[in-house]
Specification:
Chain A is mainly beta and 282 residues long. Chain A is built from one helix and 19 strands. In chain B, strand 2 and strand 3 form a beta hairpin. The chains are: A mainly beta (282), B alpha+beta (105).
Amino acid sequence: MKKIITVIIAVLTIWGIIPTAIIASGISVDAGLTPPEGRWITRAQIRYMPSAADNSMGNSEMTMYGLPIMVAYGARNYLMIMARQTVMSKDMTMMGMNSSHTGPGDLFLLGKYKAYRLNTPGYTIGVSPTLGISIPTGDDNFTSDSWDLNTGLYISGRRARFSAHLNLGFNWYDFTGDSDKIAQPGNEISLDWAGTYQIGFARDRSFAPVVELSYNKALQGEIDGADDPNSGGDILYVSPGAKLTISSTIFEALLRIPASQNPNGAQMEAETGFIAGMRVMF
Amino acid sequence: MKLKGYFLILPVVLFLLGCASTKPDINNSDGNSEIRVFEVYGMNCPGCHGGVEKLVNKVPGILSSKADWEKEKIEVVVKPGIGLTDEAIIEAVKKANFTPGKRIE
């Protein structure tokens, strides 16, 4: 009986709580400093995110695909505005039963402000705080169904061909407190670091190996107002990858390897996934 | 359309847009134009070229420009005889979030 209850709770948790943070971080911390004034940046990615559980949860497996599409604009040279819409799909097998679902995620809007930037012949450093909001427009199967606030601090340093980026983020779910969804995820903090090395092989072409470390800690969520013991935890991804830049187009790919994870209670564990995408700038 | 359909179509659309946004080489075919070269700091990869070139090219009197992230410079082709000051070009570089150095040619 205890096992059945555990499985039911796990199903509710997995289907009800898909933290948006799992699609938040990305190649070179999904970012850059604020772009030039008047510049448009479009970006599309494919994110493959498999997870699985052992036989205590009925040998469950879940494969999620995310297709985030992003448009950003340099409104001023110190302010970037961005909109991101994700389409998501998940296939799940639990206790021999298969199910799948496809739908939109929440619309996410973000502003990035250039607080500091110094360009010199030897190095460039910059600091940009971000403020984002997730609007509950998406399919409840993939979202928290609430207004969520996302704050972050982005720090970038470049010296010659090396560059390093650091992003500290906090995701506050249901900050308005008016969500009526039964399952609510816990707030999350994330810390991402990315290092790249640019190898130029023509004036308008370069190749850059990338390595990223992404740490995410999610607090315990709630089901029907009570603490959900099968939610929250932390995970560290180590992600090697590469970027290819051809003029104003960037192709990017990243393998996401969960190096360490400690999910609370009965939850599926993340397996190795990947991100592939491209950026076009106008 | 299923999600897999978007996966196939979107990269193709974005790639075509990228090709369309590629700038032609610097244009000084008449030989009478003036070329000025400035140091520019803060460019990190070829993706930065388009941002600074776009703003510099908007300055009245500029025919074309070509940035180079590795050499940390931008070449600007200026229409002759219009009295364009260096300051106008420098301001455009700053607007692109890069830092102009000295004029080297």
